[in-house]
Amino acid sequence: MPWPLASLLLLLAGPSTVQPAPPTCYSRMLSLSREIAGAFQSLQAMESSEPCVRYLPRLYLDIHNYCVLAKLRDFVASAHCWKVAQVEAVKDKVRKLYTIMNSFCRQDLVFLSDDCNALEYPIPVTTVLPDHQM
C-alpha cells in the first residue's frame, strides 16, 4: 500500500477510536451560558435597528452567582421586544438554562457568591503579563 494512502487511512481511522467524554450538567450549563452571552451581544449590536433592545435587562451570566437565577427570570419576563425573533430565540435559550440549573442539574451546581450587583456591573477581566526582568 502506498505511504500517502496508508497515512490517510490511519488519519481517518484515528478519531473514531477516541470517544469524547459525554457532557456533564456543569459543562452544559457553562456552554449554554456562553452561547447566551454571545447571542445577547449580537442583540446589543442590532440596537440601532431594534430600539427596544436597549430596554432589555442586562444579561451578564455567572452560573456560580446565586443571583443568576433571578436574572434569568427577569430576562424571560421582560415584555420588551416580544415580537422580535432574535430576542425570542435568546429568551428560549435563557428558559432552557434556567430549567437546567433549577431542575436537572441542581445538585451539581455550586454557588460561590450571591452578589447581585456583580451581575449588573461585572468587573472586566484583565490579564497581567509577568515582568521578565533579570
Tell me what the structure shows.
- With 134 residues, the protein is an all-alpha fold.
- It has a domain at 23-110.
- It contains 5 helices and no strands.
- The longest helix is centred in the N-terminal third of the chain and has 21 residues, at 25-45.
- The protein is globular, with a radius of gyration of 21 Å.
- The protein starts with a helix and ends in a 14-residue tail after the last helix.
- 16% of the residues are buried.
- The model has no long low-confidence stretch (mean pLDDT 79).
- This is Cytokine-like protein 1.
- InterPro entries: CYTL1 (IPR029253).
- Keywords: Signal.
Summed up:
53% of the residues lie in helices and 0% in strands. It has 134 residues and is mainly alpha-helical.
Which helices and strands, and how do they pair?
Layout lengths: L2 H15 L7 H21 L22 H10 L7 H20 L11 H5 L14
Helix pairs in contact: 2-4, 3-4
By DSSP (H or I, 4+ residues per run), the number of helices equals 5
Poorly predicted segments: none
Overall, the morphology is globular
The main sheet comes to:
none
H-E string? HHHHH
Strand element count: 0
Q: How many angstroms does the end-to-end distance come to? A: 56 Å
Q: Which whole number gives the mean pLDDT? A: 79
Approximate helicity band = 40-55%
Could you say which structural class the secondary elements and strand pairing correspond to?
mainly alpha
Quote the beta fraction: under 5%
Please give a handful of descriptors for the protein shown.
134 residues, mainly alpha, 5 helices, 0% strand, globular
